Amino acid sequence: MRPRRKPLLVVLLVALILVFVISMSIGPSQIPPYQVLGLLYNLLLRSQESTEPAALILFQIRLPRVLAGAIVGASLSTAGVAFQGIFRNSMADPYVIGVSAGAALGAALAIVLGTSLGIPGLSDIPFLAFLGALLTILVVYNVARVGSKVPVTTLLLSGIAFSIFLSAVVALLEVFAGWELHTLVFWLMGGFSYIQLNELWTVAILVSVSIVIIYMYARDLNILQLGEEEARHLGVETEKTKKILIVAGSLATASAVSISGIIGFVGLIIPHITRLLVGPDHRILIPASMLVGAIFIMLCDAFGRVVLAPIDLPVGIVTALSGGPFFIYLLKKRKGAYEI
Fold this sequence. Notes:
By secondary structure, the protein is mostly helical. The protein contains 14 helices and no strands. The chain has one domain (27-333): ABC transporter involved in vitamin B12 uptake, BtuC. 72% of the residues lie in helices and 0% in strands. The longest helix has 35 residues, at 53-87. The two termini are 26 Å apart.
């Protein structure tokens, strides 16, 4: 890691903390940042719980969704870096191998069929969304496998085919959803309105493990950019590395989608933005993307809370409205800068 790049991580970490406090203070009921800091100080350092209305709003409503936004943003952006590095294609996305479609189908089944699995500390929708995403990854990976290898092109085509098929199944479930249609559509839009704090612990652990694994292969990702043949000559076990990174990236994405619903563009846009800031070295690109992704989703969620207040705009809509035009602008400004 280049010494001159290290201060950027410190700046991003400070920005993350500032955005966290600002996100906690913004909403239909405005709470000044100094009051947010005071309540957090009393709770975390002095173990003093407050029963005043501001404390109830902060810790029961805003804290779970702000933390969820940080976790989801970090996981999707890090997975995006991993997939773009594996495929050596800056258009690669965490959802490209069917993760989102599998999660959507699992959640749709939980919502429409009204399943009750009785899992302590976890509602059925996140669990079945997570299960659907992982099963989809397993199927896509095995379909794409040719002997002991998994060609990138075959994997991408398999993921696209399964995504289309599973999206059609979800659309069919929408037809039969009845009174649950609103819940299903709102989940598919992506958001954190119904997040509970106890649902975040398992997801946070899975995402943390995934990010650590991806970072452990930062050097291999750098070498893979030279081409698979060159990487093999330099001692990288390319097939093993691809398998591990695909599983880790998919696990991070599935964990995020299981609590947030479908949030697009994060894994596609954030690696581009971060690469402009810190360069292509994955040893710094991975942690920087993690921080930028968390900041981006927290800001989008805060914006969605106030732009049409008292209507809570799903964060998935905000990311699509902001990410789409920005990506087009980025392509125009940086035409030819990346291999696409």
